[in-house]
User: Which sequence fits this backbone?
């Protein structure tokens, strides 16, 4: 355990010294390379900004309008048949789009049901084993200019559904 603590404390400084040392050995102008990379990163941020704003607005509208709670009520019968709490349906949907909005929903669930409750445990596991599929795909594919996503969406949704199902199973086992 002490080795892991040592590594976690010193890995970043060692990495920085390695990069700077390697740059000096290769006789590169490290500062100019850093500035060039920062400019490229800023351009990427500017390119993905409209997508980020659109996703955040959409999730905010869905959450504020009460549509997610309405949807949870609609599928409540199906989810109760599957022994999955309908209270977690909004979290599962929002998690596909926004991690920060999903975190807000999870915190609301923790306040209402408690962190050690079945719903709280399931929400925690779900947050840890699912991904913001649409956010990630839109941002990274747009930044990399990928136009043919092939089976990425199907695979990502399948893994998210698997994560949601297994989070309920694992929480029930605790």
Assistant:
């Amino acid at each position: 355990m002490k080795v892991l603590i040592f590594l976690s404390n010193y890995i970043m400084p060692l990495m920085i010294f390695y990069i700077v040392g390697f740059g000096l050995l290769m006789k590169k102008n490290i500062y100019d390379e850093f500035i060039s990379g920062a400019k490229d990163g800023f351009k990427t941020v500017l390119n993905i900004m409209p997508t980020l704003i659109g996703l955040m607005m959409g999730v905010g509208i869905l959450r504020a309008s009460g549509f997610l709670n309405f949807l949870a009520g609609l599928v409540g019968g199906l989810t109760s048949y599957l022994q999955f709490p309908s209270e977690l349906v909004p979290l599962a949907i929002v998690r596909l789009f926004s991690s920060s909005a999903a975190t807000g929903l999870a915190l609301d669930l923790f306040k209402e049901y408690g962190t050690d409750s079945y719903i709280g445990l399931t929400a925690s596991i779900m947050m840890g084993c699912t991904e913001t599929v649409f956010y990630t795909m839109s941002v990274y594919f747009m930044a990399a200019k990928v136009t043919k996503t092939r089976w990425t969406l199907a695979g990502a949704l399948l893994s998210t559904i698997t994560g949601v199902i297994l989070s309920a199973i694992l929480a029930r086992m605790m």
Q: What stands out?
A: The CA atoms of residues 106 and 138 lie 24 Å apart. DSSP finds nine helices and no strands in the chain. The chain has a mean pLDDT of 87.
